[in-house]
Amino acid sequence: MKINVIIIDKKGKDQLYAPLIEHYKKISKPFAKVEVIELFDKEIAKAQDISPEAAQRSYSKALEKYLGSGINIALDPASKEVDSFEFAKLLKDSVTVNFYIGGAYGFERDFLSKCNNAVSFGKITLSHKLVKVVLMEQIFRGLTINHNHPYHK
């Protein structure tokens, strides 16, 4: 199984969260190969200075090239909240799963409509770096639920 976490976020070594991301990638290896793809370019930076709508369009343009294969799931605070068991079902029986974390202004509705699903981790606002860690933990938890591993107890 292959899981991609595709996020609109500046690339770079984050000394606080990066070790946690690497930890979850490593412990997920028996179940899936997890890759984090960070996207941020001059076009996105410029669009964010113009307007929220321009920013969303630039996010869609950057993210759409990853929509081609597998199950596509956007993290969207306005979407359905899921618990860990519902989240695990999203991973079950899939060869490739792509998770999308939008930029500061979220997703265009058109991008969300191109995804197979959109889920929320709740109504609180989390930084991109922190939501990436939460997603990585939930991916590992979901994989362990699906494989009857004792982690989820």
Query: Spans with pLDDT under 50 lasting ≥5 residues?
Result: none
- Strand residue content: 15-25%
Return the CATH class: Alpha Beta
- Anisotropy-based shape: globular
Report the structural category. Answer: alpha/beta
Distance between the termini: 23 Å
Please summarize the sheet with the most strands: 5 strands, parallel
Number of domains: 1
Strand order of the largest sheet: 2-1-4-3-5
* Number of E-state strands: 5
Mean pLDDT: 92
CATH superfamily: SPOUT methyltransferase, trefoil knot domain
Helix content: 40-55%
Estimated radius of gyration: 15 Å
What's the architecture, going by CATH?
Answer: 3-Layer(aba) Sandwich
Q: In CATH terms, what is the fold-level topology?
A: Alpha/beta knot
User: With helices defined by DSSP (H or I, 4 residues minimum), what is the helix count?
Assistant: 6
Structure description:
This protein is α/β, with parallel strands linked by helices and 153 residues long. Helices cover 42% and strands 23% of the residues. It has helices at residues 18-28, 42-50, 52-63, 84-91, 109-114, 128-146, and strands at 2-8, 33-39, 71-81, 96-101, 117-120. The chain has a five-stranded parallel beta sheet with strand order 2-1-4-3-5, with helices on both faces. Strand 1, helix 1 and strand 2 form a beta-alpha-beta unit. The longest helix has 19 residues, at 128-146.
Characteristics:
153 residues, alpha/beta, Alpha/beta knot, five-stranded parallel beta sheet, 6 helices, globular
Characterize this entry briefly.
This protein is α/β, with parallel strands linked by helices and 153 residues long. It has 6 helices and 5 strands. It has helices at residues 18-28, 42-50, 52-63, 84-91, 109-114, 128-146; strands spanning 2-8, 33-39, 71-81, 96-101, 117-120.
